[in-house]
Amino acid sequence: MKIGLVKTMLLAVVPLTIFFTCCKDKNNPTPECVAGTGGAVAFVMKPQHHGKEIQSVPSYPDSAWIKFNTSDFPGDNPALYDLIVVGQT
Length: 89
What we know:
Layout: H1 2-21, E1 48-49, E2 52-53, E3 63-66, E4 83-86
């Protein structure tokens, strides 16, 4: 009997919690996450091809081309990207 009550409570509480925590703050129109180079997030990238690590060499170092605030592919032109980070050799 207690297990049925717990399940019922979870089915009622979890959706309400998700609904109320995922609402946008109408009083604060500026987003909390702003894309750019001034943030506190650090990425460690290890490029791979078919599960094998790609080694960076001095004559052709690895690079990461970064475009902020988009989920679309900007193309092959380096001028279309916001930041290009050259890997360590």
